[in-house]
Amino acid sequence: MADGPVLVVDFGAQYAQLIARRVREAQVYSEVVPHTAGAGEILARKPAAIILSGGPSSVYAEGAPSVDPALVESGVPVLGICYGFQVLAGALGGAVEHTGAREYGRTEVKVLGEGGVLHRELPGRHPVWMSHGDSVTKAPEGATVTATSEGAPVAGFEHPERRFAGVQYHPEVAHSPHGQEVLRRFLHDIAGIRPQWTTASIVADQVARIRDQVGEGRAICGLSGGVDSAVAAALVQQAIGDRLTCVFVDHGLLRAGERTQVERDFVAATGVNLVTVDARERFLTALAGVTDPEEKRKIIGREFIRVFEQAERDLKAKGDYRFLVQGTLYPDVVESGGGAGTANIKSHHNVGGLPEDLRFELVEPLRLLFKDEVRRVGLELGLPETIVHRQPFPGPGLGIRIIGEVTADRLATLRAADAIAREELTAAGLDRDIWQCPVVLLADVRSVGVQGDGRTYGHPVVLRPVSSEDAMTADWTRLPYDVLERISTRITNEVADVNRVALDVTSKPPGTIEWE
Ligand code: XMP
C-alpha cells in the first residue's frame, strides 16, 4: 500500500481544509492539493487515497473544474464528496443531470439495502448536510447505490473492490452527524489505511525532522506568549535541548500575568533557555503622542523587529545561531499557496513579520499542523492549559485597545479591567464558548458618574465578547447577564478611573473584532 498522505483535491469550496482535518481526526495524515495539480503530480506523492472535495460550480458550468481520468483509474482509492461526487460519477461513466431538484442545508437520506460499507448499520433515515443543484442520476458501472434522498436519486454509491465511493452530502460538517463515521469507513475499510496519525506520532515525527534539519546547529525562537510559538519552541527544545534559545520581548503592551506565564510557567514546563528583553520604555517612548491605529501598528511592528534583531545579534555574538523557529501553521501554508518546501514567512497580522534579509534558515515544526493538532501537541509536551488554550491576542497587544494615546497609566488601567473580565469569564466556565473578549479603554472619552458621595469624571471601557470559527466573521456573544453584572460591578469598584462599562453588540461585519 502507498504510504503517502490522503490528498484532498480542492475544487474551490471552503470545505477542503475541513475534510483534511476530519481525515486526520480519523488518525490518517491528509493534505490539501489544488485541483489544478496534474494527475502526475498528485500520483507522484503516492497518495494512500484521494478525496475529491465539494466545489462551488455546477459540473455544467463553463470552465467547471474536472478531474483527469488517469487519477480515478490509477487504482488509488477515491472518495468523491458533493461536487467531487458528481465529478467522480462523470469520470467513471455514470450520469449527472440538471434535474432542477436542488437541496440546500439539512436533508434526510435514506439508506438502501444493507447500506454497503459506508452506510451499513447507520439509521435507515438520517440527517445530512446537502448543497447541490445537479444530481447524479446513474452510478458508475458496477457500483452499488447505497443512499438516496428526495432531491438526489443517487446520494451515495460505492465499489469496494475497485475502491471508489462517493456521497452527495457533506460528511465533513457537524450537521451530518454520521459523516465522520462514513469518512472513517472509507479510509479504514475501503482504502485499507491504518490509523497511525496520533499526537504521539506527530511529536516523534517532528522531533526527528527537526534533528535532521538542525543537526548540531543552534536555533532562536521568538515567543509571543501565544500557542503557536510556545508549541513550536517546545518541539524544538525536545529535539535539540539547550541549543535552542527563546527570546521574549516585553513591549509593555501585554496583559496582566503574561510575562510571568512565559518566564515562569513555560520555562518550568520545558526547561528552555529564555532571554527576556525588557523594552517597555522604548515602546512607550515610540508611541508617545500617537493616536492613529495604523500608525500605532506600524510603530509597534518596527520597534519589535529592531528589538528582536538586536537580541539576535547578541546571541550570534555568543554562538553560531543559524536557525530561526517560526510557528507557521498548515492553513497559512495552504492559503499562501505554498506547497511542500516553499518557505512562507508568516507575516499577516503578526508583529513578528520578520524582514527577508535575516540570514536564517527557518525551522517550521507546525507547518503541517492544524490549530487543534497544535494544541494537542502542546498538551502532549506538558505545556500548561493556560498557554495551550489561550485565546487569540493581537501582536500589538493592548496598544490597539486603548483608543487614544498609549501611556503607562492608561495601560495599567486597561490591564486591571481586562484581568477582571478574564477572571470572571473563566470562573463562569465560558472560556471555550467565546473566541476572545477584548476589553477596550476609551481613553479619549470621559463620562460623568457618581461614586460614594462624589461625582466622578472617568473613562468608559467596552467589553467585546465574540464568537467565531476563524475570526473572519464573528457574532457578539450573548453572555449571561449575571456574568456581565459581576464584570461591570468589579471593574467600576476596583479600577480607578473607570466609571462605566459598555457592551459591544456588533457582529463582524460590519464591526471588526478589535476597535482599532
Ligand atoms: P479584526 O479586528 O480584524 O481581528 O476583526 C481579527 C483577529 O485578528 C486579531 N488581530 C491582530 N492580530 N496583529 C495580530 O497579531 C494585529 O495587528 C491584529 N489586529 C487584529 C484580532 O485579535 C482577531 O483575533
UniProtKB/TrEMBL annotation:
Domain GMPS ATP-PPase, first and last residues per copy: 197-390
Keyword Transport: no
Active-site residues (renumbered): 82 (nucleophile), 170, 172
Catalysed reaction, written as an equation: XMP + L-glutamine + ATP + H2O = GMP + L-glutamate + AMP + diphosphate + 2 H(+)
Positions contributing to ATP binding: 224-230
Domain of life: Bacteria
One GO cellular component, as annotated: cytosol
GO function term, MF aspect, one: GMP synthase activity
PROSITE patterns: GATASE_TYPE_1, GMPS_ATP_PPASE
Entry's EC annotation: 6.3.5.2
InterPro entries listed in its UniProt record: Class_I_gatase-like (IPR029062), GATASE (IPR017926), GMP_synth_C (IPR001674), GMP_synth_GATase (IPR004739), GMP_synthase (IPR022955), GMPS_ATP_PPase_dom (IPR025777), NAD/GMP_synthase (IPR022310), Rossmann-like_a/b/a_fold (IPR014729)
Function: Catalyzes the synthesis of GMP from XMP.
PANTHER family: GMP SYNTHASE [GLUTAMINE-HYDROLYZING], GMP SYNTHASE-RELATED
Entries under HAMAP family matching the protein: GMP_synthase (MF_00344)
Protein name: GMP synthase [glutamine-hydrolyzing]
